[in-house]
Design brief:
- The structure is a single chain.
- The protein is mostly helical.
- It has 2 domains: about 200 residues, Growth Hormone, Chain: A, CATH 1.20.1250; about 230 residues, Growth Hormone, Chain: A (Up-down Bundle), CATH 1.20.1250.20.
- The chain is about 75% helix and about 0% strand.
- The protein contains 24 helices and no strands.
- Helix 7 packs antiparallel against helix 22, helix 16 packs antiparallel against helix 23 and helix 21 runs antiparallel to helix 22.
- The longest helix is centred in the C-terminal third of the chain and has 33 residues.
- The chain is globular, with a radius of gyration of 24 Å.
Length: about 525
Amino acid sequence: MKKVDQSITNPMTTTTTTLSTILPSQTSDSLDTLNPDTFNGKLTKVLVVSAFGALIGGSFQFGYNLGCINAPSQLIIMWIKKSHFLITGHVLAQKKVETIFAIIASIFFLGGMIGSFLTGFISNKFGRKRGLILNNIFIFIGILFQASAIYFNYYYLLFVGRFCLGISCGLATGLTPMYLCEIAPKNMVGLFGNMNQVFITFSILFSQILGLSQIFGTSTKWYFIFIFPIIPMLIQLFILPFSPESPKYELIVSHNIDNAITTLRRLRNEEDIYDEIEYLKRESEKIKMVEKVSLKNLFKNDLRWVMIVTIVMMLSQKLSGIDAVLFYSTSIFKSAGLKGSAPIYGTIGIGFVLFFQTLISTWLIEHPKFGRRPLHLFGLIGMFFASIALVVCLIIQSQNLSSQVKQIGSYGAIVTTIIYIVSFASGPGGIPWFFASEVFDSSARGVSTSVACFVNWMTGFFVGLIFPIANGYLKEYTFLIFIVLLGACILFVFKYVPETKGKAVDEIQNEMKKMRKL
C-alpha cells in the first residue's frame, strides 16, 4: 500500500477529487460481496493519538471525577463544617454535614443523566470529535466552581461544580466510545471500545492514589484533587483539534464524501481505502431510504428489540452490585484484621486488580478464540458465584463463632471480592459501553448510545441511593438482591444476546430477531 496523500486534491490541477472519480469501476455483484471483515487495519500514529486525545479528556475525566471524592471524604466533610460556620456562624450537626456531602457526591450522577441524554443531539449536530471538544466547556465550568468554592470557603458552589462535571462526564461516556469505535478498523473495534473502560479504571485508581496522605490527602492539599482535571482537559484541547473527525459521521451523517475520504486516509495511513468508503457510502444510501431515527423511533418496530437488548446489557453492568462491592471493600479488609491505613491500601490494591484485569480483557476481546458474548457471560457467571460466596463469608463474620472460623470468613471475603472484580473486568465492565455502537448503524448510533448511557447513569444513581438503605436493613444479606439480578441478566444474555465481533449491523440485528423467536 502507498503512504497517505493527505490531500484529495489533484496536484496537477485545482480540481477536487470526488468519490465517483477515484473509485475504481465495480460491478453490482462485486459491491454486493463487500465484506467489512476485509477492512482490517493496523495501528497508525494518527489513529493512536486521536484515540488517546478522546480517552484522556473523556474516559479519564469520567473515572477520575467519579472516584476522586471518596479518598478525601472525611477532609471534605470537615471543610464543609468549617465553611458552614464561616457563612452562618452556626455549627452544623455531623449528620447534616454527612447528608450535604452525600448530596454533593450524588448530584454528579444527576448531571451525568442529563449529559448522557444530550449525547445523541450533540454527536449528530456537532460531530463526535467536535462534541468532545465542546464538552470541555462543562469541564471548565465545573473546575471553576469547585476552585471558587474552596477559595471563598463557600461550599454551596461545590453543588454546581459537581453537577457541571457530571454533565460533561455523561456526555463523555457516550461520545468517547462512539468516536473510538467509528475511527477504529473493523478488526480493532473491540480493542478500542474496551480502552474506554481501561482509562476509566486507571483514572479511578489514579484518583485513589492522589488521595493518599503522602500526596494530596491532607487538610492543606486535598483541594488539588478537585483542580487536577484541568490537566487532562488541556491535553485533550491540544490533541483533538488536529485529529480527524469520524469518517462515518462525515459520510453518513454530514454527507461529506471528500472529508470522509481525507479522514479515512489519515486514520489508515493508506491510499487504498476505496472499498471501505464504498461500504460506508452504501450504508449511507440505505439509511436515506428509511425513516430518520429519533428517540421515539428507537422503541418502534424492529429497532425496539435491539434497544431493549442494549438496555439490558447496560443494566447487567450496574445491577451486578459492582458499586456495592467497591463500597464494601474497605470494611472487608478491616474485618480481616488489617489495621490503621492498611484497609485503604487494600482498597487501592482492588483498584490495581480492576485495572490490570481490564487490560487483559482488552487483549482477550479481540483474540480469535474469544468474543463479546462469551466474555460477558463468563464475567456475569463469575460475579454470580463470587456474590454467593461473599454472602456466605459475610454471614460467617457476623455470627457468634470462634475467632478462627470468623478469620476464615474474613479472608474468604477478600478472596471472593478479588474473584468478583476479576470477573467484572473480564467483560461486563467494558463491553456494554460500546455495545450500542456495534448493533446500531450510524443514523441511530447517537440516539441509541444516548439512551444506553442514560440508563447506566440513572441505574447508578438509584443503586447508590437505595443500597445504603437496603444495607441498613439486610446487612450481610444485601447481596442476595444482586445475586437474583445477576441470575436474571445471565439468562437474558444467554438467550437473547448474539456475538457481535466482526459482524455487520444488519447481520447482528437479524441474529437478534432469530434468537428472540427461539
